[in-house]
Amino acid sequence: MSAKSEQLFNELIQLYAQYKQEVPSQRQAWPESIKARIFELQEIGARIGDISAKTGISKQTIYGWNYEASKRRRFLPVNVVAPPLTVAPSPAATSEVVRRKTKISSTVTVITPDGFRIEGLRLNRVAAFLKAVAK
Question: What is the pLDDT of residue 110?
Fold first, then answer.
């Protein structure tokens, strides 16, 4: 076991003991400090079974955190680029196009991998909404 993993395990054991003392009910949200250390241990190669055995946090809880984290990672950053406008009407149609003053839509439709759909909003509103949801 590396010095870093040993340090993380010690911190987790202390945090978990403090959490159990301060939050007697199992229905409370887990502190992010505990989750972050669990994820860090997994990144450096610790197995879920070992983490559970050494900290007392159930394997099911850790698997649940991994599942939730994987759902959040499904949102990928995107760059929205306006399609190039190439309108070359014939001379006869030019007056018709000018007369109708065709409006180009400035709204966006976003569909997440889970099927969540945002449509009819302007790009800046969609960005603000996604930023608020990601917190």
Answer: 74
Listed residue (90, 75, 93) closest to 132, CA to CA: 75
Residue type, 52: S
Considering the entire predicted model, what is its pTM? 0.50
Q: Which residue has the tokens 């065709």?
A: 102
59-117 tens-digit pLDDT? 999 999 999 888 776 666 777 777 665 655 555 555 555 555 545 556 777 777 767 77
Please give the Cα distance from 75 to 78 (Å, whole number): 9
Place of tokens 């860090």: 40
Buried b (16+ CB within 10 A) or exposed e, 32-41: eebbebbeeb
Domain boundaries along the sequence of the chain: 3-73, 91-134
Range 73-78 contact pairs with CB under 8 angstroms and sequence separation of 24 or more = 74/112, 74/113, 74/114, 75/112, 75/113, 75/130, 75/134
